[in-house]
Amino acid sequence: LVASLPRREQSILELRLYQGFWLPEHWVPGTIVFQRRFAPRPDDVILASYPKCGTTWLKALAFATAARTAYPPASAGHPLRRLNPHDCVPFIDDIFATGEDAKLDALPSPRLMNTHLPYALLPAPVVTGCRVAYVCRDPKDMVVSLWHFLRRAKPDLSFADTFESVCDGTVAAGPVWDHVLSYWRASVACPDRALFLWYEDLLHDPAGNVRRLAEFMGCPFSAAEDVAAVVDLCSFDEMKALEVNRPGSGTAGRYRVMPRDAFFRKGVAGDWANHMTPEMAARLDEIFREKIRGTGLAFP
Ligand code: A3P
């Protein structure tokens, strides 16, 4: 089946067009197995994102929130103080790609897992039976973050090539606008099952957005509870400074070959201005404006 799918080779990755999205060739078999075999539980929470839009942060926040009784966020022995968030919340896509689905079966409920697949490619029982929290980000900052990330593995990758791939949709799990819109539409149609968060909103009001996330996950904070402790534990500066996330600390998560420190670069909004010409920024903005027109979605 994989060999029969339309193929696109470019400087970033070898891609196959699968059910309307460009997937890296090595994602396709695992995606098919996930679609066919995943056995959801009603209390599963799936964390979803386009790469480089805040996955690591969302994983940390959701894990710290869900586990706050067993692991008080201020405690010195909290798992997030010794493990990278990708080692606390498994990548479903990765697990199916490596045929290790038994690992998911072994997780205690309620399970927290994540995926980079678009909503349209999630198995039907996930869509009808689980909760899915999505984090989105200004695509201009996503492109910059993606380029820096990919360069860790491909030092000669140019920013221009990365930018063009995003603009023409041929990027992993792209087109990005269709990825974003798939979750946006789900969150509008079924707000109890799909939550849509912005990276920029998390930066602006972390406590308010963690409260939303907790409520959505079915473990709301009481008025007396300390949301700030979760926010502080998961803050960029705290996480980046941890021994486990420092350069040389090994690899994590889906990108097994990627060092853990690669998931913590700047952690700000607006870094695109240091990488793009005003013309490039305007072009990307215009592409997204056109694609999301009439959907009710508005980028910050
Ligand atoms: P930058 O490259 O712009 O710094 P992902 O987790 O989806 O791979 O996204 C990575 C982006 O999120 C990187 O953005 C990274 O620095 C940022 N990030 C990681 N942890 C964060 C945190 N705790 N708070 C804010 N941003 C974070």
Automatic annotation (TrEMBL):
Residues 42-296 form the Sulfotransferase domain. One of its GO terms (molecular function) is sulfotransferase activity. It is an enzyme of class 2 (transferase). Keywords: Transferase. It comes from the Eukaryota. Pfam families: Sulfotransfer_1 (PF00685). The keyword Transferase applies. Its EC number is 2.8.2.-. The keyword Transferase applies. Belongs to the sulfotransferase 1 family. This is Sulfotransferase.
